Amino acid sequence: MSLISQWVDNTLEATGMDAVDALRAFFLLAAATTISVSIPTSLRSRFLAYGPRANPASISTGSAPPRAQNPSAESKGFLDYLATWQVPHSYFTHFYVASVLSSVFWVAQLLSRGVVFQAIASRVSEDHQRHSMSLTQLVICCVLLAIQGSRRLWECFVFSKPSSAQMWFMHWLLGLGFYLAAGVAIWIEGSGTLLTKNLTLAHLQMTNAPNLRTFFLIPLFLVASGLQHDSHHYLYSLKKYTLPEHPMFRGVVCPHYGAECIIYLSLALLAAPRGEWVNKTMLSCLAFVAVNLGLTARNTKTWYAQKFGKDSVQDWWLMIPHVY
């Protein structure tokens, strides 16, 4: 316990924040960094594109940077070298393994008031603890996040195809960090309640009548999950990369990305602490999701235009019709 507490204390002391603010900062900093990398073409082409959207010409296959005659060429050579640090695109499965294991771990920690939970929850400021989620909210949101991670893990196994596609290793590390952080974000604004009340298996029975928030948002979560699943199934059914013709893809490049954003939006609203409209930690989580998927959707539209002609997707929305 002392080692875990000391590590948490040292980390938070270095940031000058409590656990809630540090978690929000992580998501927002990750989103800002992703945007920054997307602006210069020299970085975007090397580090953001992956899978079939990647430009092979932008990634050197050598193991060392080429010799350069001037500082600019030397810089490009170093970037090319960094871009060779790739992992298989199939490592995406690791994200959802991490998500599911994180959900299981935190449910066990919350039920047992384990040492890791205590180390983090006790480092939440009194102001954040005063505005806390209810036990019912905590149960609902943790279960829904576990469902999301489990479904995506199942899809990774069922809808996978052999592929030589790769992604930059930082994509992989950042993705793992995101899903591990999301496992904490889903309950941390309920730490005030969890520190004063015991969460037991009886709370999982959910005998309370739903309020208006849960009445509308749980179906929204489930519908978005279903639409995303249908999109993934359709893309898997394609024999080769073609312009999607499924109704969900009419005029939308990546509707499954839009569905992902709606899933996290519903969680952010469902997890709103007492007296708040939204859970700001989960909203920060959504910000990272929206930025990451939004940039990927833009790259996908560019790739579609190059492969199928600019006119084929010129008027298409990226993720959500009439929104983005």
From TrEMBL:
**GO molecular function terms attached to this record:** 3-oxo-5-alpha-steroid 4-dehydrogenase activity; polyprenal reductase activity; polyprenol reductase activity
In terms of one coarse class, where is the protein primarily found?
membrane
Q: What is its EC number?
A: 1.3.1.94
Membrane topology of this protein: Multi-pass membrane protein
Kindly list the GO CC terms recorded for this protein.
endoplasmic reticulum membrane
Q: Which UniProt keywords apply?
A: Endoplasmic reticulum, Membrane, NADP, Oxidoreductase, Transmembrane, Transmembrane helix
Main EC class of this protein? oxidoreductase
Q: Which reaction does it catalyse?
A: a di-trans,poly-cis-dolichal + NADP(+) = a di-trans,poly-cis-polyprenal + NADPH + H(+)
Any single GO BP term: dolichol-linked oligosaccharide biosynthetic process
Q: Where in the cell is it found?
A: Endomembrane system; Endoplasmic reticulum membrane
Pathway, according to UniProt?
Protein modification; protein glycosylation
In terms of PANTHER family, this protein maps to: DFG10 PROTEIN, POLYPRENOL REDUCTASE
What job does this protein perform? Plays a key role in early steps of protein N-linked glycosylation by being involved in the conversion of polyprenol into dolichol. Acts as a polyprenal reductase that mediates the reduction of polyprenal into dolichal in a NADP-dependent mechanism. Dolichols are required for the synthesis of dolichol-linked monosaccharides and the oligosaccharide precursor used for N-glycosylation.
The family classification in the record reads: Belongs to the steroid 5-alpha reductase family. Polyprenal reductase subfamily.
Q: Any idea what this protein is called? A: Polyprenal reductase
Species annotation? Penicillium crustosum (Blue mold fungus)
